[in-house]
Amino acid sequence: MSNSSITNESGTFEIGETTVHRLGFGSMRLCGDDIIGSPEDEETAREVVQRAVDCGIDLIDTADSYGPAVSERLIGEAIGDPDDVLVATKAGLLRNREGEWIAHGDPDYIRNQVLTSLDRLRTDTIDLYQFHRPDGDTDFEDSVAAFAELKDEGLVREVGLSNVSPELIDQAREQVDVATVQNRYNLNDRGAADSLEVCAENDIGFIPWAPINGDDLAAHGDLLDDIAEAHDATRRQVALAWLLERADVMLPIPGTSDPAHLESNVAATQLSLSDDEVQRLTDAAE
Ligand SMILES: NC(=O)c1ccc[n+]([C@@H]2O[C@H](COP(=O)([O-])OP(=O)(O)OC[C@H]3O[C@@H](n4cnc5c(N)ncnc54)[C@H](OP(=O)(O)O)[C@@H]3O)[C@@H](O)[C@H]2O)c1
Fold it and tell me: Start and end of every NADP-dependent oxidoreductase domain (predicted)?
């Protein structure tokens, strides 16, 4: 039951057999600087997660590499494993103190990581387990096979991919049902448009990461401001509302560490852009 006055009006999408609201929450920003270690204020981080659920968000994205382990732990502490929230985590990237993200798709590593994620998320089954990024040193097929095996064993309910081309989506679909694809996509960066098209054609959820371009919306600032003013909204809200209009399979996960920013992002689902506004935004960078 929500105790917030902000409600999630983004419509719904089926991930496997689970219905979620299309606007979710990305929890990468709940960690320390460079997404390493704990945030300065863990209490506020847990509050953000709780506020997301109170606002009607039931799709939360995380990864074992955020912290590492910190984001998953904070989610587990904040909400445990509620039946009505789908927590999507990922494996396949290592971190180091220099802040690098190192692809590691070794099947034994994936099988090990799922056990650590189950513990931190305080659950018996990962709702959606995403392969974080293809690893040039491991055959993609072997990594995907590990995810498929975890699904067969019941440790994972649904399998997703991240940072993949249309060719790799098709290849993985030969091995396992692919429920979602998570690629970078926003108003300014449409590089993953071809993967989005494959998802739309096959009813696969498309999770655009950095949906507000990491909060850098200067490139189309004037246009965004113009439309935002007409709706008494913000640039970010217009950018999110545009994404939701792009495709029925679009599941944006704006990331924030601030409860007020979270509410503002959910309020974007109440914006109703005109066809003309959507078209002007679509034309802006194409
Ligand atoms: N699969 C992948 O390889 C991959 C890669 C990167 C990210 N992700 C996922 O995608 C999610 C979203 O991406 P992202 O966090 O990089 O980028 P984003 O959502 O486009 O932007 C996040 C940035 O915008 C700021 N922000 C958000 N809402 C705001 C608001 N209402 N007002 C003011 N500032 C606001 C945040 O700062 P504040 O904290 O101050 O609000 C943060 O600096 C991540 O959390 C993560 O779950 C996946």
Answer: 22-284
pLDDT tens-digit series, residues 125-166: 999 999 999 999 999 999 999 999 999 999 999 999 999 999
User: 9: Cβ–Cβ under 8 A, 6 or more apart, which residues?
Assistant: 269, 270
Measured distance between the N- and C-terminal CA atoms of the chain, rounded to whole angstroms:
42
The Å distance, Cα 254 to ligand 1 centre, comes to 5
Does the beta carbon of 212 lie inside 6 Å of ligand 1?
A: yes
Verify whether ligand 1 is closer than 6 Å to residue 185 (CB atom): no
- Using the atom order of ligand 1, give the atom closest to the CA of residue 182: 1
CB atoms within 10 A of CB 88: 29
Query: Which DSSP helix (H) or strand (E) runs through 87?
Result: strand 86-91
Residue 166 lies in a domain: yes
**Atom number, ligand 1, closest to the C-alpha of residue 258:** 41
**Would the pLDDT of 2 be above 60?**
no
Q: How many domains does the chain have?
A: 1
Give the CATH number of the domain where residue 112 resides.
3.20.20.100
| Angle 107-113-116 from CA coordinates, rounded to 5° | 160
Whether 5 is covered by a domain: the verdict is no
Is any atom of ligand 1 closer than 6 Å to the C-beta of 263? no
- Chain mean pLDDT for the chain: 96
Strand partners, 255: 26
Which residues does the annotation mark as catalytic? 66
In a domain, 2, yes or no: no
- Domain with 85 in it: 12-218+244-270
